[in-house]
Inverse folding.
């Protein structure tokens, strides 16, 4: 598997947390709130790794939301780990993060609620055997957390099919009769939705649906050293998985993370203002550039990746939204990289000619 779900990646940690968890649990939860928090923010004394970097109070509020009768809506800039956090929360609360609906322009109610096996439907008519549950039905009948990724990318009328599962905790299956016609949610069921501020925003969401969610904003990592160590750790893991045995070059990484932060904020670390890119320069993008730099270095030349690899990978990230961004990146390399202290910056300045165009 390229990327097993969180409950498989961290099966050992979850097992240890379950075995030692003596705190009260909300009904239907696999862990107590405190153990779920430790799973996500980490606990060095018990060998539990930190998986999400950020304000631990966000985790507390998110977990409390999930224990209430409202859903949890994680909003924020792209690449701030909203999806990762929703996966970790679902793995902690239900032991299963795979009941996931990926929202998009073409998402239909069938993909959210249920559909039918048409051969059985024609042969036997509508029944529990011809019904094919989708994540929402699975989550409600199994008492589990359902994840709804990028909910705002779905048509509004499709989003609204969450109203009665969230408020009345029930879903009607009008094709069936008798007790099967109503699915009542078991304890433990709730919904975590994510939405990013770049796509169609949450403003367009119906106010009826908004009222059924608690909103939490996930912010980018505020400090350079924390972001740098996260990018280093994540890139090292990805590189190892790609068969690269050289660790990422620390000088290159430092320049990479600093450049991402400055291009994202439109301000240098010294406080000078500069052009901000319209492309997304998130931590998730920084991790993927660091991975690509390591791959280039290793598979093209058998080393860990240089400033030239960085500039050539940056071009592919920075020029997504507008051609203007490439010009801004060029100005950044010429004006900001020049004369800064440290070997990484000199190499970056010298590599500016690698930028295409
Ligand atoms: N605060 C953070 N803690 C841990 N990892 C982070 C953090 N911020 C970014 N990352 C990195 O970003 C990756 C996750 O990005 P993810 O896809 O979850 O972001 P997202 O907010 O859902 O983005 P999008 O809006 O594009 O869907 C992680 O795998 C990790 O490498
Ligand atoms: Mg996401």
């Amino acid at each position: 598997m390229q990327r097993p779900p969180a409950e498989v990646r961290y099966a050992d940690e979850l097992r240890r947390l379950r075995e030692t968890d003596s705190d009260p649990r909300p009904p239907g939860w696999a862990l107590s709130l405190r153990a779920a928090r430790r799973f996500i923010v980490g606990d060095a004394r018990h060998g539990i790794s930190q998986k999400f970097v950020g304000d631990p109070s966000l985790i507390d509020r998110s977990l409390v939301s999930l224990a209430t009768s409202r859903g949890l809506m994680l909003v924020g800039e792209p690449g701030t780990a909203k999806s990762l956090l929703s996966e970790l929360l679902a793995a902690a609360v239900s032991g299963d993060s795979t009941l996931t609906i990926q929202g998009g322009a073409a998402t239909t109610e069938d993909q959210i609620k249920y559909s039918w096996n048409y051969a059985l439907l024609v042969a036997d008519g509508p029944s529990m055997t011809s019904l094919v549950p989708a994540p929402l039905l699975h989550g409600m009948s199994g008492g589990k957390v359902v994840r709804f990724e990028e909910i705002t990318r779905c048509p509004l009328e499709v989003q609204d099919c969450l109203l009665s599962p969230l408020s009345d905790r029930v879903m009607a299956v009008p094709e069936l009769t008798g007790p099967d016609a109503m699915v009542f949610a078991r304890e433990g069921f709730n919904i975590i939705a994510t939405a990013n501020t770049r796509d169609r925003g949450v403003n367009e969401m119906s106010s009826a649906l908004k009222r059924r969610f608690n909103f939490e904003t996930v912010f980018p990592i505020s400090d350079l050293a924390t972001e740098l160590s996260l990018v280093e750790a994540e890139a090292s893991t990805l590189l190892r998985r790609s068969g690269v045995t050289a660790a990422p070059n620390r000088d290159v990484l430092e320049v990479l993370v600093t450049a991402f932060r400055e291009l994202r904020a439109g301000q240098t670390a010294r406080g000078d203002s500069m052009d901000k890119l319209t492309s997304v320069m998130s931590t998730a993008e920084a991790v993927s550039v660091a991975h690509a730099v390591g791959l280039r270095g290793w598979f093209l030349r058998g080393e860990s990746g240089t400033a030239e690899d960085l500039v050539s990978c940056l071009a592919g990230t920075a020029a997504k939204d507008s051609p203007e961004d490439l010009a801004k990146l060029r100005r950044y390399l010429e004006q900001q990289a020049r004369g800064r202290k440290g070997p990484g910056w000199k190499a970056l300045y010298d590599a500016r000619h690698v930028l295409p165009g």
The two ends are 39 Å apart (CA to CA). Residues 172 and 182 are 5 Å apart (CA to CA).
